[in-house]
Amino acid sequence: MKQIRVLLIEDHFLARMALHSVLSGHAQIEIVGEASDGEAGVAMYRKLKPDVAVVDLRLPRISGFDVIAMLKREFSNARMVVLSNYHGSEDIYRAVQNGAMAYLTKDASGEELLNAIQNVHRGLRYLPHVALDRLAERMPAVELTPRETEVLSCITKGFSNREIADELGIAEKTVRIHVSAVLDKMGARDRTQATIFALQRGLVHLD
After folding, report:
1. Phi, psi (5° rounding) for residue 195?
2. What are the residue boundaries of the HTH luxR-type domain, all occurrences included (predicted)?
């Protein structure tokens, strides 16, 4: 089994040691580096290019929010898991908007953290129900038709218009009309943002 190379970006020494202890005990995880502030975390990521970074949000020098945004701009395939003491809807929203693929609070179990890392490594989002519920509180209701909901589900799976047409048995031109309507109703600028909003609002659910 190929190991997942993980970078820890956490300013509290004891928390970092606890993370190291929990994760390094799993055969699939290799801790390749540890950083105690945001600036060092960004530099270490550039040097090591880990498969997954576990990032705290409240970091010295550069905040975790900015670390995530900077790395996502520089490395479009950067995969990051947030592990934070904070579980307010705005923290979760900002982290996901900036590019985090998972959000856990620090009372999460080691098994849940491992599960999040494994999912994110596979390119999947990992947002526990409590995080999705918090996000839903801050988002206005969106009413989609049954067909638009089907199209949105396909969008979240990364399907192209042609693939959506084949999946739903409709014309590609019709798909384009539905996609445009979905983005407009959700206030999303593109498919990626629509996917994030869909998960936040509970319009689709991760398997």
Report:
1. -65, -45
2. 137-202
